[in-house]
Write a structure and sequence with these properties.
Distance between the termini of chain B: 68 Å
Distance between the termini of chain A: 54 Å
Radius of gyration of chain A: 17 Å
Oligomer: heterodimer
Strand content of chain B: under 5%
Structural class of chain A: mainly alpha
Number of strands of chain A: 0
Shape of chain B: elongated
Number of strands of chain B: 0
Largest interface: A-B, 51 and 54 residues
Chain lengths: 96, 124
């Protein structure tokens, strides 16, 4: 699928996909282990940013410019989920 | 098609973005405190994703979605500090302590359950 990428760009994009996927799995360690709830929220934010980078690298690999829009929508969803979880944690602590 | 200069610039930006994503995730895994982790990830990971957006901008330059990628850079630079600020404020409201004996400025005995903006003192 990466045949139309010229020169060194194809292997570099593939290596970037591997790096971003491995970093997403490593951030999952902090989601599971993390001592407090804000640690897990920070790790989920990192996972959302890595998924944005994965969508952009996939757009470069396939040559489909549609996936840039997909990455922008993923960035919006990550921001909204981060704000929602942070507010939920704060309000729950105030109520109890 | 993509010219040689575009391919070279895109390759360099993808390498830089992968490096900054790596640095941000290492900071998330190895720093001792939630505030330190939030600091590391909100800077380095945002810069890595913005570099990926810039690579997409360069690659799709003659036609396509390059303007959408620039909008993505602006969106990341607006929303990443906002999200980090909300996470750190909720951590402070929950009473998460600093590591290594650091305290809040102006509070020598470090009581994080008192809100700093004085909303609860107004009704009490």
């Amino acid at each position: 699928m990466a045949t139309e990428l010229p020169g060194l760009l194809g292997p570099v994009v593939f290596a970037g996909l591997l790096v971003a996927s491995g970093l997403t799995l490593l951030a999952g360690y902090r989601v599971i282990v993390g001592p407090t709830t804000p640690d897990r929220v920070v790790a989920l934010d990192v996972i959302a940013t890595n998924v944005v980078a994965i969508a952009l690298l996939f757009a470069l690999q396939t040559g489909e410019a549609l996936f840039v829009d997909v990455s922008l929508v993923l960035a919006i969803i990550g921001f909204v989920s981060t704000v929602a979880v942070a507010r939920y944690v704060t309000e729950g602590d105030i109520i109890e | 098609m993509v010219s040689t200069l575009q391919a070279a610039v895109t390759t360099a930006l993808v390498v830089v973005g992968s490096f900054f994503l790596f640095v941000g995730t290492v900071g998330l895994l190895r720093l001792p405190d939630v505030y330190n982790r939030m600091h590391a990830t909100s800077k380095a990971t945002t810069l890595g994703a913005a570099s990926m957006f810039l690579a997409a901008t360069v690659y799709f330059t003659p036609a396509g979605q390059s303007l959408t990628a620039i909008v993505g850079i602006v969106f990341l630079f607006i929303t990443a500090p906002t999200g980090a600020h909300m996470i750190s404020r909720s951590a402070q409201r929950m009473g998460v302590e600093f590591a290594l004996g650091a305290t809040w400025p102006g509070m020598p005995d470090s009581r994080p359950d008192e809100p700093a903006d004085g909303e609860e003192q107004a009704e009490a």
